[in-house]
Design a protein that fits this description.
This is 3-hydroxyacyl-CoA dehydrogenase. It comes from Rugosimonospora africana. Residues 200-280 form the 3-hydroxyacyl-CoA dehydrogenase C-terminal domain. Keywords: Fatty acid metabolism, Lipid degradation, Lipid metabolism, Lyase, Multifunctional enzyme, NAD, Oxidoreductase. Residues 17-196 form the 3-hydroxyacyl-CoA dehydrogenase NAD binding domain. The protein is of the alpha/beta class and 303 residues long. The protein has two domains: 9-195, Rossmann fold (3-Layer(aba) Sandwich), CATH 3.40.50; 202-295. The protein is built from twelve helices and eight strands. It has helices at 25-38, 49-68, 74-83, 107-120, 136-140, 174-186, 202-218, 223-228, 239-246, 248-261, 270-278, 291-296; strands at 18-21, 42-45, 84-86, 98-101, 126-129, 149-153, 163-168, 190-195. Strands 3-2-1-4-5-6-7-8 form an eight-stranded mixed beta sheet, sandwiched between helices. α2 (49-68) runs antiparallel to α3. The longest helix is centred in the first third of the chain and has 20 residues, at 49-68. The relative contact order is 0.11. The protein binds 3-hydroxybutanoyl-coenzyme A (3HC). 3-hydroxybutanoyl-coenzyme A (3HC) binds at residues 132, 155-157, 159-161, 203, 206, 236-237, 242, 245-246, 250.
Length: 303
């Protein structure tokens, strides 16, 4: 069944090569997904060669891990490793059909990235942003071909989370949207079409959820109590572990975007800023709290 709002799949363009701007963790996870599910060449790029090499090495290591777990046979693993390459020079994007950006969450940086990419790619190449909360329409407004810009919002961990939010910007055309849905299907994601509204859908809920936990901490609820109090809801992860996995800096950015858009509905906890400043994980994967980071937090008085 065609997802709600998706154009005719017949309009989709074939994607035979993918470029990714950014070689950080999210970009690496996305590169791995494309190589694994679509078996197309994926070229990573970043500000300097060291970052590019680190990103490519991460993807190659993840492929190795899958092979060691018996999830990929050695031949397939070698093929996938060969598909993922990187270069600081974006010239390799010239024959890409899709370029995804997963860079720092800053509108001006993203606009600059697209302006540079547009000089290299063909006018039909789809430009997809993995922004967590920024306006896709604003990102595309100065481009020569804004109709090929779309939002492609993945969730952490990218290989496991089934959902993909596809964002239609003001000028996105049907061929671009159809291509986004076709690619999402090939990646085996459940695609939902969302409005280009601040933080789309999932991050609004997540920000409200984590914001209430942080609010309880600000008010004096001990960290470990706040972290366990949701257990009856049967969530797969403790809230502060989820905050750590998403990345406090990303959560802060999403929170600030929502606060700006809806000041009456979204506040920003100062403790979130302190967690970001700490620069190290607040919890481990199981939710155990790091005492040094915890000591930096200002817990209010419940009295
Ligand atoms: N990075 C990459 N892969 C990870 C991972 C991580 N941090 N944590 C777990 N995984 C993978 C494992 O490798 C495993 O993969 P496999 O099935 O292919 O072997 C799979 O996830 C399941 O792992 P486990 O069996 O060890 O662990 P769990 O059953 O405890 O599940 C979880 C782990 C899937 C992370 C689960 O706890 C979960 O669903 N948590 C909620 C995650 C969530 O809500 N994500 C959305 C965040 S919002 C977001 O990302 C948007 C952004 O804009 C902020």
């Amino acid at each position: 069944k065609r997802p709600a709002g998706a154009p005719s799949p017949g309009l989709a363009r074939e994607v035979t090569k993918v470029g990714i701007v950014g070689a950080g963790l999210m970009a690496g996870q996305i590169a791995l997904l494309f190589a694994r599910r679509m078996e197309v060449p994926v070229v990573l790029t970043d500000l300097d060669q060291a970052r590019v090499d680190k990103g490519v090495a991460y993807v190659h290591q993840e492929i190795e891990k899958l092979a060691n777990k018996g999830r990929l046979n050695p031949g397939k693993a070698a093929k996938l490793r060969g598909l993922v390459t990187g270069d600081v020079d974006k010239a390799g994007f010239a024959d890409a059909d899709l370029v995804i950006e997963a860079v720092f969450e800053n509108l001006d940086v993203k606009k600059q990235v697209w302006a540079e990419v547009e000089k290299i790619v063909s006018p039909e190449c789809v430009l997809a942003t993995n922004t967590s909360s920024l306006s896709v329409t604003a990102m595309a407004e100065h481009l020569e071909h804004p109709e090929r810009v779309v939002g492609f919002h993945f969730f952490n961990p990218v290989s496991v989370m089934p959902l993909l939010e596809i964002v239609r910007a003001a000028k996105t055309d049907d061929a671009t949207l159809a291509t986004a849905f076709a690619v999402g299907k090939q990646l085996r994601k459940s695609c939902v079409l969302v409005k280009d509204a601040p933080s789309f859908v999932v991050n609004r809920l997540l920000t409200r959820f984590l914001g209430e936990i942080l609010g309880a901490i600000d008010a004096g609820t001990p960290l470990d109590v706040a972290n366990q109090a949701l257990d009856p809801l049967g969530l797969p992860m403790r809230p502060l572990a989820l905050l750590t996995m998403v990345g406090p800096a990303v959560a802060l950015h999403v929170g600030e975007t929502l606060h700006e858009a809806f000041p009456d509905r979204f506040g920003v906890s100062e403790n979130l800023g302190r967690i970001v400043e700490a620069g190290k994980p607040l919890t481990d994967r199981d939710g155990a709290i790091d005492p040094e980071v915890a000591a930096l937090l200002k817990i209010g008085d419940t009295a």
